[in-house]
Amino acid sequence: MELKNKVSNLPNKPGCYLYLNKDNHVIYVGKAKNLKKRVSSYFDRAQNLKTTRLVREIIDLEYFVVSNEKESLLLEENLIKKYRPKYNVLLNDDKAYPYIIITNEKNPSYKYVRKLDKKALRSFGPLPIGSNARETLITLQRLFPLRRCKGDLGKPCLHYFIGQCSGACFKDVDKQYYQEQIKKVDNFFKGNINEVKTILTNQMQKAAENLQFEEAQRIKEQIISLDFTTTKQNVEFKSQADVDVISYYIEEEKIALVTLFYRSGKLLFKDEHVQLYFEQDLTDLIDSFMTQIYEKNILPNKIIVDKEIELFDMNEKYKSLLTHPIKEEEKIIYQIAIDNAKEAIRKSKISTTTNIGNENELLLQLQEKAKLNKEPYRLEMFDISNIGNEFIIGSCVVYINGKPVRNEFRKYNIESKFKSDYDRMKEMLYRRFQKALLEKRMLPDLIIMDGGIIQVHAAKEIINALGLSEIQIIGLVKDEHHNTSFLLDTNEDEVNIKDQPKLFNWLSSIQIRVDEYAKSGFRKKQNNSFLKSELEGVEGLGKKRIQDLFKKYNTISEIEQADQEDLFKILKNKKALDNLNIYLKNRK
Fold it and tell me: What family does the entry list (predicted)?
């Protein structure tokens, strides 16, 4: 009755709403031009159709009133990032596709990136999976040279001598040179590769004549790679526009979302995402999906979506680019997208029965095996990795609804004064959960300790001291070969999990992930320690400036390739920058 009253008393204003379950977890976040109308529609729908799992789980709701649609969009994005609700579309953090970019500098260079650099002078992609994008990058560097070295070396670099650098290493390069090279690259990615193929074919024949058969084979593979990258498709747009097609297909309790990326009229890349569907608003789901896609990727000239999607309710960032499939060619390629969505559903069914299994099934198995009092919606696993007492790193990986949430993974530097694993674990857990309480962050339902009874007791001591006894704690123990062996349940009893291979493999994968995450931490800490001590001999670079350098750059190589203006912004001292450049040159 209290929930019903809240719904009936909602204001007729724009804003965001949050649905909460019995554990006070946010399970869905939505936006609305009219809060009362939108939220009421969920419960009206539940009376007219079968009661959905989403509606059945709603025990309470919260809402925020905003001034306009733009504010509601921004707030919704932030709330979804904060709470990761299980009924929203939640893409993995690596939804960034391969690109080749040309940097926006006085002397530009090529780069292969997995996350779009919006400051780049040119961005080409997404590039097709299987196209061997790095080979394409090498081809461009050889045939249309830009700056290949870090520049301003005072002498020609090795790449210049073999015709693969613009000469920025020792001279001022005419802007016209770069403009002509970039124009050739533009034409290349538009599919005009005849010039490139002719050059490579001649090189291949020359290598074969000189009995350099390995070189000839390598060039042949380059040509094949280029053909794949720029191949013509069965369905092309008459225009050379960049177009994305986003479709969906629903079957039983699953929805597949598929995006086809057409570049210069050619289909280059496909992305697919499958998740559970419980009658959520389709416009909201597609909108959330697109927001996450285009947060990390380039916007096309046009986006085609299903006619059921309300274009007027979509994100302002791309609303002007949206259209329903109207022209005949748009209808044809949209049908291709739907066919791919159907195939994604079919593959997900096979995956569920043949691979590790779906996340809901695994969480229920874990609840039973570990004697948990509820399904662990959010779990966190902890590990310590160290080299003696010098480099000690604690790590935490976070899973929500059975899936890793990489942007919530954390590393912790542990001081060497903490000698035992017991004390190190206590230190890490205290820092993490004290801060979580202060910031009112979502707490886990379950903590998994990578280790045995000692680690479990360390966790219990801290959790109880902070008054968080509702968080359940179990252990995952390794054998003498450092492989996953058995589980310590909430009663600290040993539990065999090898009899349930899907659960065993899933837990093993989490254990491997937290272990590798910790080890990567101390390796980086160890390397930085050596590098920082190395730079301490450079006049003008005190500990503070060296520390500032390594906040942005991980290695000396990255510092060598950095833009001089960026380095000056960090060092804020021309003499110190000059000394650093002299050191880097002599270091070679």
Answer: Belongs to the UvrC family.
